[in-house]
């Protein structure tokens, strides 16, 4: 059993060594191709982030009465879904488009805007993706400002406050493409495909090699028969 396994491993390694040039060529082709496409073909996409804090309401009442404080906090959590719906609505995003004179439609902008509750907090996180880092910052800041105004109109008080704005390098990052990640993935894909190609070529080669000795034997046999005939 061990001999069979050793033979299989030996055959596997032998195929890889015999086809190493093919494997290296295909792997490099995939890796370099992915790098060139990532760096020179794909347009970069930037993401700007802004966080908005949901107010607990009357802070004096909250501080003086623990029951009121708990009620206000529970109320704030229940308002999250409402605020997120408002933030994603045409009521907010269409005003952002008008204020910034964007060419996007509501549908196009909504696909690039992501709004979620920050985990275990009273904050809402607004993320905007754009091919221009400057425009991503403008959109995320304007969305936060318009949302704040709309919530104030709906509830008659300032329920939101902007914690940070997308006006610094810490909240703006390039999210796409990721050249090095793309190159690693392309390297692995190229390696797997090149190894598969090596084994396919080996499987095609073996039947051909098996027929060659038979052809040679036939030629030798024919030559011997001719020699005997000549002697006769």
From TrEMBL:
Any Pfam family: Wzz
Any one Gene Ontology molecular-function term assigned to this protein's record: protein tyrosine kinase activity
Domain Polysaccharide chain length determinant N-terminal: 12-100
Transmembrane annotation, as ranges: 20-42, 180-204
Compartment(s) of residence: Cell membrane
Entry's family note: Belongs to the CpsC/CapA family.
One cellular component (GO) term of this entry: plasma membrane
Location, primary (coarse class): membrane
Protein name per UniProt: Polysaccharide chain length determinant N-terminal domain-containing protein
Membrane topology: Multi-pass membrane protein
Species in which this protein is naturally found: Domibacillus iocasae
DNA damage among keywords: no
Keywords: Cell membrane, Membrane, Transmembrane, Transmembrane helix
């Amino acid at each position: 059993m061990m001999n069979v396994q050793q033979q299989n491993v030996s055959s596997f390694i032998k195929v890889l060594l015999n086809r190493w040039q093919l494997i290296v060529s295909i792997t490099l082709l995939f890796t370099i191709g992915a790098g060139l496409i990532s760096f020179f073909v794909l347009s970069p996409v930037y993401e700007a982030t802004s966080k908005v804090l949901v107010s607990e309401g009357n802070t004096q009442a909250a501080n003086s009465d623990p029951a009121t404080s708990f009620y206000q906090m529970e109320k704030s959590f229940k308002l999250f879904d409402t605020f997120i719906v408002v933030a994603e609505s045409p009521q907010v995003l269409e005003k952002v488009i008008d204020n910034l004179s964007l060419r996007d439609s509501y549908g196009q902008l909504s696909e690039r805007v992501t709004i979620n509750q920050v985990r275990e907090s009273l904050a809402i996180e607004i993320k905007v993706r754009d091919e221009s880092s400057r425009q991503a910052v403008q959109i995320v800041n304007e969305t936060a400002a318009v949302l704040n105004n709309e919530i104030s109109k709906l509830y008659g008080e300032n329920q939101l406050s902007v914690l940070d704005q997308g006006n610094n390098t810490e909240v703006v990052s390039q999210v796409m493409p990721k050249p090095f990640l793309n190159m690693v993935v392309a390297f692995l894909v190229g390696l797997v495909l090149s190894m598969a190609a090596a084994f396919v070529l080996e499987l095609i080669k073996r039947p051909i090699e098996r027929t060659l000795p038979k052809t040679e034997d036939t030629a030798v046999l024919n030559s011997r028969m001719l020699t005997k005939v000549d002697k006769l």
